[in-house]
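sorry for the late reply, my laptop died twice this morning and i had to redo everyting from scratch. anyway the thing you sent over, i finally got around to it. pasting the sequence first so we're on the same page, its 144 residues, then the predicted structure underneath. double check i copied it right bc i was rushing
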Amino acid sequence: MTELWDVATVGILRLPSERLIRGRGVLRPMPEGPDPAFGVYLLDDRAPAVAWESRWVHWPDFGLPADPAEMAAALREAWTRAATERVEVACLGGNGRTGTALACIAILDGVPPQGAVAYVRENYRPRAVETTAQAEFVSRFEPH
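ok and here's the structure:
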């Protein structure tokens, strides 16, 4: 598979399938390197305008997505597109909501639900998935 992201870049999660997804916080400076082709933005307010295709998922800080089905559809699209495109998932800080979403994407990629949070903490950020409710959400996430 061609590297769509530079895996040495901070914030790149390599999934078991070798798909790469960049996680980040929109409050932080934009990382060096190419722009994504697609982004999923997990924010309480509408996502800021970006120059690439994107989806906004209404998701309060430290909470859970307002519409879990909409969130699941956005994450399935991100996972599918990551096979051939640069994809990023982001919230304000890049930890709680982003980590939760990346753990759900890891489940889509075949990581068992009970190990998805640990997988993301080991391969993305140690502080990913910030609340007990977010961890429980991941453990109940249905990949279909």
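The longest strand covers residues 20-25.
thats about all i looked at so far, will dig more tmrw
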